[in-house]
Design brief:
The chain has one domain (8-184): Nucleoside Triphosphate Pyrophosphohydrolase (Alpha-Beta Complex), CATH 3.90.79.10. The N and C termini lie far apart (38 Å). The radius of gyration is 16 Å and the shape is globular. The chain has helices spanning 8-20, 25-37, 89-101, 171-184, and strands at residues 49-58, 64-70, 75-77, 80-82, 106-108, 115-121, 130-141, 153-160. The protein contains four helices and eight strands; from the N terminus they run ααββββαββββα. The protein has 186 residues and is of the alpha+beta class. α1 packs antiparallel against α2.
Length: 186
């Protein structure tokens, strides 16, 4: 890779994440290999998979997380979406969080990755089965917590941390919750 390769900032984030979360080395190493092997990893047109950015959004009081009931996947998830060519995964995460929540004052709780995840997306219409290589950031609502439901969601909900298991049993969301609670208790 050349010094101007647009994948280098993401690879640096992932390497730092690997050092901070060695227990997740198998998945993180797989993510790093995918980015290293695919110059077009930020493009949705890469049919085997592509980079996405998402956000675990907490409210002003740091007591709830915003979950979206995703229309296509019919599950409660964190807001997020495709990079669509943008190699700045933090910017992608923030943009998707704003678009999907309508929240106008979001800020990064920390600049590092909160979590990474690789998950299978089932085939749909003309789109083959593929993987999302997701970078997840911890964002905090720093203004009004009033949200707006986007076209991509059936619903949105501020969910108290203790009630998240009533909405989802997704391992990766519960992992983000655990990490968030650990960070907030510092």
């Amino acid at each position: 890779m050349s010094p101007k390769d647009n994948r280098l900032p993401l690879l640096t984030l992932l390497e730092n994440y690997l050092k901070a979360c060695p227990a997740e080395s198998e998945m993180t190493s797989r993510y790093i290999a995918f980015v290293g092997e695919n110059k077009d990893c930020f493009e949705r047109s890469l049919s085997i998979g592509h980079v996405t950015g998402s956000a675990f959004i907490i409210d002003n009081a740091c007591k709830q997380a915003l979950l979206t009931h995703h229309k296509k996947l019919d599950r409660w998830l964190q807001p997020g979406g495709h990079a669509d060519g943008d190699p700045d995964v933090a910017a992608v995460s923030l943009k998707e969080a704003e678009e999907e929540s309508g929240l106008e004052a979001l800020s990064f709780y920390m600049p590092e990755l909160l979590d990474v995840d690789i998950h299978r997306i089932p085939a749909r219409k003309e789109e083959p089965e593929h993987f999302h290589y997701d970078c997840r950031f911890l964002l905090r609502s720093s203004g009004s917590d009033d949200f707006m439901i986007s076209d991509e969601s059936n619903d949105l909900a501020w969910v108290p941390f203790g009630d998240i298991v009533q909405y989802t049993n997704e391992e990766s969301i519960l992992r983000m919750l655990k990490k968030t609670l650990r960070i907030l208790s510092c």
